[in-house]
Structures are given as C-alpha cells and as structure tokens.
Design a protein that fits this description.
The structure holds 2 protein chains of 2 kinds.
Chain A (H helix, E strand, L loop, with lengths): L3 E10 L2 E11 L3 E5 L6 H8 L7 E6 L2 E2 L4 H7 E4 L11 H11 L4 H14 L15 H13 L5 E4 L8 H16 L4 E6 L2 H7 L2 E6 L2 E7 H4 L2 E9 L3 H10 L4 E4 L2 E5 L3 H13 L4 E8 L4 H4 L1
Parallel strand pairs in A: 3-8, 3-9, 6-7, 7-8
Antiparallel strand pairs in A: 1-2, 1-4, 4-5, 9-10, 11-13, 11-14, 12-13
Chain B lengths: L19 H16 L6 H28 L11 H4 L1 H16 L1 H4 L3 H5 L5 H33 L19 H31 L4 H28 L3 H7 L4 H12 L12 H30 L3
The chains are: A alpha/beta, B mainly alpha.
Chain lengths: ~300, ~300
C-alpha cells in the first residue's frame, strides 16, 4: 500500500498556483521531496496533514482520505515544521511530554516516550534546561523528537537540515536514515539540496512550480551512464585528438576526457591509444548519474 | 554490577491513545498552570503570585475588621470586590493574557498542535476556559475568604450600658445567598474579562505590546465612560449615565449583577430597570461568543504558518 498517493492535486492561492495537478504515489521507506524554494513542498505537507483543503484533486495518506479522515491521519503521522516552533521558556523534556499528551498518550507513557525519544535524537542532560538557550542543532533535535514522540507510522520532515553546520547536517541525515531503517517509520523529507537526499532516500520525488518533474527510486537516478571518464597524467589534449580520429565522440571536461561508450571496443581503443602514445593512465571509469542532472538537462 | 546504560534500540508504543476529552483536559491544565507561571522559570511566577497576594489583602483586612468591630458594614460586599479592586484585576489580565493568547503564536508552536488530532475549536476552548478559570480563582478566592470570615464571626457586639442594641449580623442563609450571587458574578467577570484580554493579546504577538494594549483598552474604555457619565449626571440624565456602563467591562458585568443577581451597585449608575439588565447580559453573551469566534479565526490562521 502506498503511504502517500495524490491524484490531480491542485492548490491555488490568490495569484499563485502552489500545486498544479500533482499525481504521485510513494511506497513506504525514506522518501525525499525535492524542489526549489517555493516549489510547493510545504504546501503539499500541509495538505497531506489535512490542515489545508486542496482546491481540487484527491490525496490519501496511509490509505486514509485527507478530507474525510484528517483526524485519523494526524493520529498516525508526525510533523516537523521548517520554521522555529519551540517555546523558549520550557525545558525540552517538559515540552516533548506536553506534545505527547496532545497526541493522546497517558501521562506516564508520555514521560517515558519523551525520555526515550530525546535520547534517540541525541539530547541528554541539556534537556532539563529551557529551550531558549539551545543551539540550532539542539533545537532541530527537539523538533524532531516532538514529531516522533507518539510513535507515528510516518513523519513529515520539512527541511530538517536547515541552518545546520556540516557536522550537524551529517548527524541529522544519519538520524533520518535510522528512523527509516531501524525505527521502521516511513519518512517524507524535504530539501532543496539533492545531494543530501541522494544519500539517505530510497525514493525521490522532484517537484518544480507545483508540478511533478520526476518520481523514482534513487537507484535509478544514479545508475551508470554511457560515458567514460578518462584521466591521464599529461598529454590530455593529444590523446583527445587521437581518440577523435579513431571515430569516438570525445569532449574535454577540466583535466578529464569524457568519451561516449560505443561498445566493448571503446575500452580497448582507449587502452591501445594510451599505450601507443606512452601516456600514464590514472583512471578510466564509467560515470554515474547524479540526481542534479535532472535539473540541468 | 556496572551501571552502564544499555541502548536497547527503538521501541514502538503500543499502549492506549486517549481521546478528545483527555487531550482537552491536558491542554486546559497546561494553560491554567501557564496562567500562574507554574512549570516555568521563577520570573514567570512573580507577577501572577504577587497580584494574587495583593488581591487577598483587602479581604483579610475586611475580615479582621469585622472580627474586631462586629459591624456588618466592615465586610466588603461580595459583588463589589472585583469592581473595587479593578486596577489589580486589570494588571493581572494585561500581564497574563499574552502568556495564554500570543506566546504560542509568537513562537509558532500552534502548527504543532494542529498537526495532531486536536481540533482548532477545542484548542480555543481549552485556552479560553483555562484563562477564565485562572481569573475566577483570582476573583473568587478573596470572596470566599470574606464568606468564611463572615461565617466565623457570628456573635454580635455586646452593647455598652445605656446604648441601643447593636446591629445584628446577617444570618448564614442570607450570607450564603449573597455569596453564591457573588460567585456567579465572578464567573461572569472571568468570562468577559478573559475573552476581552485574550482577543486583544491575540492580535499583538509581542508580549510587551500585548500587555500595553490590554491595559490601554481597559483604561480608555473606563475613562471615556467616566467622562460620559460625569457629563450626563451633571445634566441629570441618569438613564444615559446608566447605559454608558455598557462600554467598559467592569461596569458591564456589574450592571448584570445589579439587575439580574439583585446586588447593590458598585458603579456610579447601574443600567435602567430590568430591561437594562437583559441588554447588559446580552452584551456579555455577545462578547463571549465573539471572543471565541475571533480567537478561532486567529488561531486557525496561525496554525497554517
């Protein structure tokens, strides 16, 4: 069963179309939702939470209709907003307990779950201090903890790496991967950085201007391309001309040569040319696609 | 045995998930505690508790005076307590309305509530209910103290030789009726003032502005009404003076106390006759309903950020 399925989902605000007939379906796992700022990512999350009624179209989350079963969806999902959303005068532990109770957890269970969840996101002694004194990294962890405290089946994480330094970013990405892999909770995570999502997602949905650009498994984005990267110590230019003479399509890219693979013989031709010219071959590898190419091509 | 903490990994929660009543009650208690700064740093507690203490002092003095003099007039009237101490009540209202109404809006916490099963209407009800309850506690505690003092002081003063018999203290039954009427007045005060304070604070997200605007609404309305009443009475237009009370919250509620609960007036001029009481009561009801509606719309918008 898909965790999220939309059918012709459209959202118009006065003067802006945030989502334009979006039809997409994703399976359980860690799903990345990518798009430039203003592409409609946050709007989509709010619609899926049942907070904003769409202008037209339908959507289901965990098999529940967003219009009819908004309440039941919100029982089963967690939400980490993009913006700051924490009261500065409460300690993290009090705040997360309160949020657990707002999801219907009895008082004792709320305390236990809050302690567990804060530990999982990596907040220890500092959780007894008021949130006002926390660093951005700690705040992001509290935001994540409140989204997980009621043990949802699916979490929506809106730009969780925003404002983090490289180390904090790596930790957050690792945590998100763990939520999907170890905790067994499906994740819909948004970002405007494709490279990040490539590392942690099973599936990526790319939207642009409210329209679906791509929706596919990460593996298929990054499969091998038909291009060989060739690097030699020196004589790059001469090698390029020599290969072009043999009928291969060659183009330089910085210190490398990119050679279109015409078949098995391409590898042999390069090897022979390098050997005959007595050059020093450093590398010859088949280039992999990056998700970024979706935007550049 | 070593005291290492073993990471036993993530555990799923399969216990009960309680329904709407539990969530509503939890949120109500959370806000009620917040209104008195409980569960917050010390500095959040100073203001509400200082004001709460100050509200009790006149009642303590009044009970002491009653015990010493045995004069029935020494006891402050239950229905008049809120009106007499309205500056203190107004300061509490101004200081704590932003805590309930705008704090979660200012720090964008509202979307976290609405992404949970909790409904927007329940959220507003819990907040309004909690703040009105806080105000009721502030107003009804001294009134209850007065009542307890009155019950404890039963013996009339011994007359001096040759003096006429001293005034009798009212009976327990009479006291109880007045006390209950006084409590009904406190409920109405709490609802009207709470609604007004929350609505004003909800539109001024910064705490300082919130405090200032609640105080401003109170002072401006009171001043204007006082001026109008002064002019009307100098021209012997007592009906106009009575109606003017409609436009400032304490006089508005006192008008209802006087005309519908049978209290003595604590304002310059109560509204005319039973009809005035009905109009004043209708105005209170309209204010309460409008407050809920406005807060609903305001928080709905805040929840979509």
């Amino acid at each position: 069963m898909p965790i999220i399925a939309t059918q012709g989902l459209t959202m118009r605000f006065p003067g802006v179309t945030a989502l334009d007939a979006l039809t997409v379906s994703v399976e359980p796992g860690v799903v990345g939702l990518v798009g430039a700022n203003g592409a409609g990512k946050s709007t989509l999350i709010k619609i899926l939470l049942g907070l904003l009624p769409p202008t037209s179209g339908q959507a289901a989350v965990l098999g529940l209709d967003i219009v009819r079963d908004g309440g039941r969806i919100r029982e089963r999902v967690g939400y980490m907003p993009e913006h700051d959303c924490l009261p500065p005068d409460m300690p993290a532990t009090e705040f997360v307990v309160h949020m657990a109770r707002m999801s219907g957890l009895p008082a004792t269970a709320a305390r236990e779950r809050a302690a567990d969840t804060l530990r999982h996101v990596g907040l220890y002694e500092e959780r007894y201090r008021p949130i006002g004194g926390y660093s951005t990294g700690m705040r992001q962890r509290v935001k994540l903890a409140q989204a997980l405290v009621h043990d949802p089946q699916l979490v929506f994480l809106d730009e969780p790496t925003n404002g983090l330094d490289p180390a904090g970013r790596d930790e957050m990405l690792g945590l998100i991967r763990r939520i999907g892999a170890e905790f067994g909770i499906s994740v819909l995570v948004t970002s405007h950085l494709l490279g990040e999502l490539e590392r942690i997602c099973d599936h990526v949905v790319i939207i642009d201007g409210g329209r679906l650009l791509r929706s596919q498994a990460v593996a298929s984005f990054t499969e091998a391309s038909g291009v060989l990267v060739v690097e030699v110590d020196e004589g790059t230019e001469k090698l390029g001309m020599r290969l072009a003479q043999t009928g291969l399509r060659v183009r330089p890219e910085g210190r490398f040569l990119l050679v279109d693979i015409a078949g098995e013989s391409t590898f042999d031709a390069i090897r022979d040319a390098v050997a005959e010219m007595d050059l020093c071959l450093i590398r010859m590898e088949q280039r992999r696609h990056h998700i970024e190419e979706v935007f550049t091509t | 045995m070593t005291s290492t903490i073993h990471d036993i990994g993530y555990r799923h929660y399969d216990g009960p998930r309680l329904g709407r009543a539990y969530v509503l009650r939890s949120l109500f208690v959370h806000n009620l505690r917040a209104a008195f700064g409980l569960g917050r740093p010390i500095k959040s507690k100073v203001m509400p508790f200082l004001l709460f203490g100050a509200m009790l002092l006149p009642a303590v003095g009044s009970v002491a005076a009653l015990a010493l003099t045995k004069e029935p007039g020494a006891l402050i009237r239950y229905s008049a307590y809120a009106v007499f101490l309205q500056p203190l009540v107004a300061i509490f209202l101004a200081a704590q309305s932003p805590v309930i109404a705008s704090r979660e809006m200012r720090f964008n916490v509202v979307p976290l509530y609405f992404s949970r099963p909790l409904g927007r209407f329940d959220y507003v009800l819990a907040k309004y209910g909690a703040f009105a309850t806080a105000l009721f506690i502030l107003l009804a505690t001294p009134v209850t103290l007065l009542y307890a003092g009155a019950l404890a002081t039963r013996e009339p003063r011994q007359p001096n030789p040759g003096e006429a018999p001293p005034p009798q203290l009212p009976g327990i039954g009479e006291h109880t009726v007045h006390y209950l009427e006084g409590l009904a007045g406190c409920v109405l005060f709490a609802l009207v003032l709470g609604g007004l304070g929350l609505v004003v604070a909800a539109f001024t997200p910064r705490r300082g502005f919130g405090v200032a605007s609640v105080i401003a609404v109170y002072l401006v309305s009171l001043t204007v009404v006082t001026i109008v009443q002064g002019i009307a009475e100098s021209q012997s237009k007592y009906t106009i003076s009575g109606w003017a009370g409609l436009f400032t919250p304490f006089y508005l509620v006192d008008g209802v106390q006087v005309r519908l609960f049978g209290a003595e007036t604590s304002t310059p001029q109560p509204p005319p006759g039973p009809f005035g009481g009905v109009v004043f009561a209708a105005a209170c009801a309209a204010l309460i309903v409008a407050a809920v509606g406005i807060l609903y719309a305001r928080f709905r918008k805040a929840g979509l950020r």
